[in-house]
Each structure stands twice: as structure tokens, then as C-alpha cells.
Amino acid sequence: MKLNLKILKMTGHLLSRDMERQPDRNPRVLPALRVGAAVLCILLCAISRNAVFVITIITVELFRLAMRPPDDIAHVLKALILPVIFTFLIMLPAVFFGHPKTMLTVTLKVLESVMIIAVLNCVLDWQDVTQAFGVSENLSMLVLILDMTMRFLMILGDYSNQLLEAVTLRSVGKDSWKHAKVDGILGTTFMKSRQMAEATSEAMACRCFDGRYRCYESHRFSGYDLLYLGVAAIMVLFFVKTQKGV
Amino acid sequence: MSMIRLEHLNYHYHQIPALCDITYDFEQGKCYCIQGPNGCGKSTLFRILNGLAFPTSGKYLLDGTEITEKKMKRPDFAKAFHGKIGYVFQNPEVQLFCKTVEDEIAFGLFQLGLSEEEVRARVEKYLKMLNLEALRKRAPYHLSGGEKKRVALGAVLAMDPPVLMFDEPMSGLDEDGQKWVISFIKSLKSTDRLILISTHYREVADELADVRVVMNKAHQII
Amino acid sequence: MHIPDNYLSPQTCGVMAAAMVPVWAVSVHKVKKELPKDKIPAMGVAAAFSFLAMMFNIPMPGGTTGHAVGGTLIAVILGPYAACLSMSIALLLQALIFGDGGILSFGANCFNMAFVLPFVGYGLYRILLRKKTSGRRELISAGIGSYVGINAAAFCAAVEFGIQPMLFRDTSGNALYCPYGLNVSVPVMMLGHLTVFGLAEVIFTVAVLAFVRRTALETTAVSTDAATPLPLKIFLMLLIAATPLGLLAAGTAWGEWDKAEIAKTGIGYTPKGMAKGLTYRALMPDYSLKGLPAGFGYILSALIGTALLIIVFKLLWRNKGEDEELQ
Q1: Do A215 and B103 lie within an 8 Å CB cutoff?
Q2: Does residue A109 form part of some domain?
Q3: Residues B173, B179, B185, B187: is their CA dihedral positive or negative?
Q4: Interface with chain B: mutation pick from A25, A141, A158, A207, highest number of B CBs within 10 Å
């Protein structure tokens, strides 16, 4: 039984980002705008029939990345390497099956979409990403559920890791991790998660929860938002122009 | 007149008795410390008082209204009931579920249906009161034990309930944190509230209690 | 099984997402009725748990490891509708925050892992279980259900991949998205899932379910009799049957639009030989900057170079900084 360290690394990264959160920190641009623009960008790239648009987007993203602190750059690059190499390898045989172009277009587009999401998560904290769903009254409940999932994820990840450490300490011998109780660790984590769900629902009831949720954070529409909308509009115009040429 | 009235309250959990024939009156403006060994039923009593569990037999009256499982099924009744009682859980981990400290304090206020300005005013007030301003954008579950306790207190106090219940307020706190909690609860006492504290620390009861309620292993109040 | 963006065409993604909308609507409705009290934290916890389950490597015979998805387990314990919603939540977070699986392909990923997997797994579990609830029989039913469930999901993903080259090609016949047909995608996907991943799913489901049933009978009594009413069953079956049709429809619609568009721009009259020549001459003919100033390509490459330089420089500086700290 081994825990993939990925989750601890991921939650660790989130944790450190969270510790740095400043009390006066307010996103300059409405998070929903940023997330929306990122999704739009990925969509446009996906339906783009030529590479000009995709390469331009990659260029812009590279520049945005270059402006980030080195730690962020390293984080984004790490996130990029695996999917891109994986895609490249998967698409490689296609060259010999008579689709020589596909390999490059798909690999480039995968690079582009993974990069957009990775850069987005550098600019925004996960709290802001989930906050993006709060723009609609109907979806605001989703914000609460997503936040709660993130919280449970961190707590349960931590918990299962502690269990795993305890089991490792108790077991002697080289291959003993194989016999360590898979069911015990996962089962106990599961029981713990059920208890936490019940306790949380009680805590919510005690604070008069009635099925509605409103986010406290509010964002005033500012010049930055307008600017951002402008940039998004330019992106769409550019897309239309590049598609016409083909 | 008594704020909370318990009449011959019994509670069985899977046929095992947890509370036996409890009759007691809790009056407004006083601070009660409920003492007793582990497993004497303090937590169960608090769960019943908060409408999270219901007595097997006997009556629980809040402000003269009997609280029953059937009534609590009605959302408007349950909401009004929970609005009257502020409950600070023993383990703040389970009590904090929002993404930021300020969201946490605002949660209950929005549920009460207060206006946007009122909510903001109250959040600012309690952030200041509990010295949480520097932590306002942080996620509650990454805070230290003492900070979490303060957030939980703020979230409950902001709703301004006439009854306050603390389940083991000292657990998980260091010495400074414990001193702070005691002095803070003392400052709350001056207001016209009913406060219930469950604890097995004698010092807490010495400092805070107007009335001591002692429970024994037989799940009774003596 | 997380499909990234650009393996599937946006049309496919759109159809899959549209297919998920009624499923989500029905699930929200059912969950509101079945898990009234603690539905929101329960969703969050189940989502976090399945997320976590995917992070555990389960040891397999032969020294390999694999990870599970856990959809069937959650369906058995919380009911299939709750499983559908919590899996969708986990997938959304993975796509948006952890970069696992695409944004556009979110609908397709949900269709495979949040709809097909738990419903097939749970359905089979109920059929095998009948009315008896003896411990061993339940575990065996859940195990078989989870194995078939994950393979059904993998098969759906393989079909989604496999139809891409049939439906979406550019003018020179190159596949636009996943280039492999069904003859490649189905065997490749199924090979892994019939063996390693299927087994991991079975081990995971049976082990956790056994542990949960053994340790706490009272907490898991939540698994209410979530029998699916007949109209809903028919509806779900129709949906599964209709989705491929929708895919084909979207494909042809795109094709027609494409042809008309090509005719308008006059590209359609390009001699075939020339188009072919282009393909052989350069691997990426559509990287030629038609309709744009010739200098644009140079500007782009210059910009990319500059950005890369800054990135390399910053990374070097970062490593140096760390070295100094160590000393």
C-alpha cells in the first residue's frame, strides 16, 4: 500500500499559497471573468482550424508566465511536462498511420490548454476559482460544495497519510507494505469522512442553514474588469480574423 | 421564568441509557457550568439542547415551547430555534466549513436573512472584537487551534443568540489560549444571556460559574 | 481515464455535456429527496473521498500497482444519484484546479465516470443482490458491479476516442483530434481496464465496503432503497442509446458547415496534388500564415524566444537562490 505523493504535494502547494494570503488581498479582476476567459480561450483553440491562433495564445501565455515569480514558473512547467510528453508519445504512431499533422496540432493544443489552466491557477487561488461560480444565484450552492470538497480533501489527505505513516511504523520487514491493510486505511478514512459529513451538517444546522448560500466576498466592477473584457474581445476578433484566412 | 426547562428527560442510545430522568431549570442571565466525568452524558445533553438529538421520553422546553422532532422537521421552526441558541463545538475543526474566515462569520448572518450592510457591519465588528482582522482571507482549517476557536466563537456570537453553549471550551488550547477563553466568556457574562458550559476543569467552573451542575456516572444531575 | 482537452472535438464534448444535463437534473432532484438532511457535506465528502481514492496506488499481483475510481463504492453506499453528483464535483475540481482532465471534455469525463460507471456498477450490484443482503453476496455483487462499471466507462471513453477520426478531418484528410479509429482505441483502452485498473477497482470496492460494513452498521444505513422507477430506467436507457446518434449528428453538421465555408473561401478549388504536396513538404502546412502579414510569424517566434529566455533565466536564478540558501 503506497500513497501516491501527488496529492500531498498538491495540497501542500495549496496550503502554502493559503498561508500567504494577505488580509487586504482582493482580486483585481472579477474571478468569474478570468475563469470565463480561460474557458473561452480553450474553446476557441479547440475549434481553431489553423495554428496561428493557437501559437499566438501560447506566446501570450508564455509571456504571462514569464512575468510570474520563479516558483510559479517551475510549478507551471512541472504541470506541463507530463501531459505534453504523454500526448506526444500517444500521437507519435499517428504519423505513420497517415496523419502526420495530427500529432503536432493535438500536442500543441494540449500544451495550450494545460498551460492556460496552470497559469490561471497561478494568478488565482483556488478560493477564487470556485468563487467564479458565485456569479449566478443558482450556482452559488456549488461554490459551497466545491469549497467543502477542497476542505475535506485536505483534511482526509492529511488523515490518510497519518494512518499510512502509523502503519509503516508498526510494520517490520521489506515487503510488509504489501500486507498493510489497504482496507483498514481506506476504510478508516471512509468512516472518518462519514463522521465529518455528519458533524458538518449538524454545525450547519446550528447556524440556521436553510439550503441557501451567499458568498461574503463582493467585487466592484472596476476599470480592470473593462480592460480585461477588452482583451477578451480582441482575442475573439483575432480568432475570427485567423479563421477567415484559411 | 426559566429559559430552558427539562422535565424528566431520558435518552437512550441503542438501548444504552445516556441520560436518566433529568429535571432542571436554566434561567436567563446566569452562567451554568456542567461538570462530570467522561461519558456522564454532558455531550448528549448538549446535543439534545441544540435539537440535534431528541429525548426518548420527557420534555424539553425553550422559552415555554416544547421542542420535538416533529416540530424540528419544519424548516422555519428549526431555523428560528437554532437562531436562539449559539453552540460552540468542542472540536472547531468540524464547525468551520467555509473557505475564508470572513465567509465563516457571514454564513450564519446571511442565513438569518440580514441585509448586506448589516452583515458587513457585524462581520467587521466581530473580526475586530476577536482580533481576527489579519486572518480574514485565510482558510479556517489552516489556522492554529486557538485561532480556530476564535473564529468559531466569532461565527456563533455574530448571530447574537440569547443562549450560548460551550462544549469543553478549553480542549485543544494552550495555557494562554485557555486564559483568553476564560476572560472572554467572563466578558460575555455581563450581557443578559444564558450561558451553559460543559467542562471537566474545576478552575473553569471556579472562575465562571454562577451555578454548578454536577452530573454523575449514572447520567443524572445531582 | 481523464480525457484531456483536444483529444475530443468540441462538438463531441458539447453533445456529451448536453447528455449530462438531464442526468444532473434528475440526480439533484433524487438526492434532495433521499439524503435530505446532510446532503451538502455528504456530497463534498464523497467527492473528496473518490478524489483521494484515485491517489492511492493499490498493490496488485505481479508487482504492479493501479488506482481505482471508486464510483461504484460510492453508489453502493450513498446511492447512484449521489455518486453521480459527487463524482462530477470531483471531476470539476480536478479539471479546474488540478489540471487533470480537460475543461471542454468535462462533459465527456462526467458521462463516462460520473454517469456510466456508477449507474452500470450499481445497477449490476442490485440485480445480483436481488433481495438478499447476506454479507458475502453483497461483497461479490459489489465487486462484479465495480469491475463491469469501470470497464463500461472505459469502453465509452474508447468509443468517444474512436469515432473522432471518422467524423472530424480537415481538408487534407488529417484527423483533427484523436487520430486512432475504433480498431485501435478500443483494444488499447480495454486492455488496461480489463486487467490492472479493473482489478484495482474491485480490490478497492470490496475491501472498503467490507471494512465499512464490518465496523459500523448504523452509519451506513443511509443506503436507502434507491430503486430506479421504470420510466426513469427507460429514459436513462434512451439517453445512452441516443448519445451516439447525437454525436453523429453533430459530426455531420460540422462537416456540412465546413464544406460550405470552404466553398465560400475558394479553398475547395485548390488542386488535390498541391494540397498533398504541402502535407508532404511540411508537417504543418496550416502553420503557414495565410491572410496575415508575412512578418507576423517572425514576430511570434521572436516573442516566444523572448518569453522562453526570461523563463529560463528566472528558473536559473531560482535554483541559484536555493543553493545560496543551503550554504
Answers
A1: yes
A2: yes
A3: negative
A4: A207
Whether residues A35 and A67 share a domain: the answer is yes
Rounded to two decimals, the ipTM of the complex is 0.83
Q: Determine the Cα–Cα distance for residues B76 and B78; give it in Å rounded to an integer.
A: 5
C-alpha cell at B105: 462569520
Total domains in chain B come to 1
Residue B212 identity: R
Q: Give the Cα separation of C145 and C128 in Å (integer).
A: 8
Residues 181-220 of A with CB under 8 A from C: 182-184, 186-191, 193-198, 200-201, 204-205
Three-state DSSP at C235 gives helix
Q: What is the CA radius of gyration of chain B?
A: 17
Q: How many CB atoms lie within 10 A of CB C269?
A: 8
Residue stretches of chain C with pLDDT short of 50: 218-227, 249-291, 325-327
- Contact call for A246 and C208, based on CB within 8 A: no
Contact C203, A182 (CB under 8 A): yes
Q: What are chain C's domains?
A: 10-258 (1.10.1760.20)
Window 260-319 of C, Cβ < 8 Å to A: 265, 267, 279, 283-287, 289-292, 296, 300, 303-304, 306-308, 310-311, 314-315, 317-318
Q: Which residues from chain C sit within 8 angstroms of residue A121, using beta carbons? A: 97, 99
Q: How many angstroms separate the CA atoms of B38 and A108, rounded?
A: 63
Residues of chain C found within 8 Å of residue A191, distances taken between Cβ atoms: 211-212, 215-216, 219
Residue A196 lies in a domain: yes
Comparing A63-72, B34-43, C311-320, the range with the smallest average pLDDT is: C311-320
